[in-house]
Amino acid sequence: MRKIYRLSVLTAIMAMIMPYSLYAQLEIKPEFRSNPDNEPLEVHPVPHPRQLKWQETEFYAFFHYGMNTYTGLEWGNGDEDRSIFAPTAAPDVRQWLQVAKDAGMRGGIAVVKHHDGFCLWPTETTEHNVTNSGNEYGRAVNIPRDFADAARELDMKYGFYVSPWDRNSVYYGTDKYVKDVFLKQCAELAKYGTDQFEMWFDGANGGSGYYGGKNTTVNVDRATYYDVPNLRDSIHKICPDCVMWGVGGEARWIGNEAGWAGETNWSPENRDYAPEGNGMYGSENGWFWFPGESDAKATNMGWFYHDGESPLTPERLFQMYLETVGRNATLILNIPPDKAGVLPQASVNSLVGMGNLIKERLGNDLALKATIEASNTRSAGVNRNYEPSNMNDDDKDTYWASDDGIVENTIQLNWEQAQTVRYVEIMEYIAKGQRVKRFHIETSEDGKEWTRRATNVETSTIGYKRIIPLHGSTSNSYGSGYKVKALRIVIEESKACPLISKVAVY
Ligand code: FUL
């Protein structure tokens, strides 16, 4: 007590006798403050770093290939004779991934075991695998090995779909299945590459099947049966960046298989979201960072190849892209390889057509040549500033932020010459949580009179990425555009000061 008294008397005397400028020099320098960069606080929940990397993959392919390719079924019963798996040529996984890359995708996920239980690699966990298949091509198949190699060669991310439900295994429904079959299969797959970005666990779990000749119905409680905590931990030890999808709890099903997410789409969600059908929208006050992935088909029949199928048009696929990647979800788009183990030419044409539309329509960012300003800007710290120019600098790690408590803000872009604009893309810096709750976009021909655009669109959440067609339609998506000299984004409401890492205009 005495010490404190002495200290404060000393400080008071010093303040009186010291010239002001000298006293000011004794203030704590910014670099010694606890938050020298003046960084905004997180709004929880926030993504795990592996979920952030996953989100950046944005758009990737799904390849359903396996026993069903040769039976024409979508769900094999598990009693299929292994000799039926007889590719007419060596499956060309490099072609699959090359087409995905040409379509503008950043990765792919190959099905290596579907519900019928037939494994597309030489596994030690069951005889029901390629080594016992119908011909030389089949016996030489090792999809995980070749897919991982091709992905690395093409600089694509990769992962595998392994069905937890196994209609072949005699052990399905018992603890032995989980321990000696399913978890071991996941561990075998993890060894095909420590750099996997996602492991896909289907939601269809239990029902009728062959089950090693029992021909019965087995139901399981998918929330507890698969020993998910153990699965997650053991895979993450080997593949630290591998997001465990679905039952794994690190990314959620978007709630439909038609290629769309809600215009309002929160990445926060609660684990028991499915009964409420919230997959498309997430929950503003969700407890977990549980971002949405939309799985959709690029063809008109099933997930697996079927004779007579045809691909959707590039326009339709582009619409899906706008309604998923453009609405804070990722898009995993399925292209089925045929009986020769290649993607049919018609699918290739459609996919490449889609890739061209993405490039043509969303490839030339007009914001890069605009000046950009904001109604409020957070003060800079020692190593980082929050200037508006961070939004059009093409660097995802820099962002604009406002001061704490300023949750309404206007961001304005100005061009010297009038530009024809059709889409606005906005990205939040989600490492510190998803914040924006409501915004709208206006354009101006002269920088004075403003017109609100996309009035029919729910301009609520932004999230990792939001793409707004200014004329308000994702299906008739191009249009002639608007000739403008200025454009502004008015953020009306945000959970805390907004953090925007990118504004692009096309
Ligand atoms: C579903 C499965 O049952 C389908 O066969 C397919 O694999 C799809 C991606 O997920 O739930």
Can you characterise this structure?
The protein is of the alpha/beta class. It has 3 domains: 3-32, no CATH class; 49-362, TIM Barrel (Alpha-Beta Barrel), CATH 3.20.20; 366-505, Galactose-binding domain-like (Jelly Rolls, Sandwich), CATH 2.60.120. 23% of the residues lie in helices and 21% in strands. It has 11 helices and 21 strands. It has helices at 2-17, 20-25, 49-57, 67-71, 93-102, 136-139, 143-154, 175-190, 228-238, 314-324, 345-362; strands spanning 59-63, 107-113, 157-162, 198-200, 207-209, 216-218, 243-244, 252-253, 268-269, 288-289, 292-297, 330-334, 371-374, 400-401, 409-421, 423-428, 436-444, 451-453, 466-469, 482-494, 499-505. The strands form 5 sheets. An 8-stranded parallel β-sheet has the order 7-4-3-2-1-12-11-8. Strands 13-15-20-17-18 form a 5-stranded antiparallel β-sheet, with no helix packed on it. α10 links the parallel β11 and β12 (330-334). α8 (175-190) runs parallel beside α9 (228-238). The longest helix has 18 residues, at 345-362. Residues 1-5 and 7-25 have low confidence and may be disordered. The structure holds beta-L-fucopyranose. Beta-L-fucopyranose (FUL) is lined by residues 74-75, 202-204, 295, 303.
